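Entry 14. Ran structure prediction on the chain below.
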Amino acid sequence: MLGLSETNQVRRTGAVSSALGSGDALACVRAATQAQHARLDKRLDAVAQFSDPEQRRGLCHRYAAFHIPADIMLAPWLSDLPDLDFAKRSRSALLAVFVGDRPLPDFPAPAGQAEALGMLYVLEGSTLGGQFITRALATRGVIDPGLAFLDPYGDETGVRWRSFLAVLVREVTDDGLIAEACRGAVRAFDHAESILCGDAT
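Output, structure tokens:
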């Protein structure tokens, strides 16, 4: 469970506090991570980096460094969760070719299932962004089969996203669990920014 100071940190904004009071897990997680999401998109500029052959390989490695340890860390919490189909959400096989010889950084450890679901919110949400990136790259003439990890579900992206959200709102039902899910999403976004933007070396 979250400590009082951590819960209060999650409650800090009016939007998050309102969502906690309503029992709306999705609204709370979105409110808690909105600023982080915008900052990551601006800093990373993935379309520009993937468009540049000299930058592409390094960014692919950083995606591997984010997603593969996440799969390993979250599996004990989420593998057996009904209707989630966690194993089929993994992108580790698509990213393994980019690992190289350097050890991958650890993914933050969740304290419980709700926090793990908050972390998965970030990973699964990135499939929506990945689909946008893939389409933007195509308009620039960048068609690279090695970038399949960006859009792993293809035409099923929307269905898979909605099925994840259904599990999130089913499992995260009271203010305590919602605060934990928010904390997980915030921690995952912090980690994503550190890894994908190259802050962690």
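The chain has a mean pLDDT of 91. Will compare against last week's run tomorrow.
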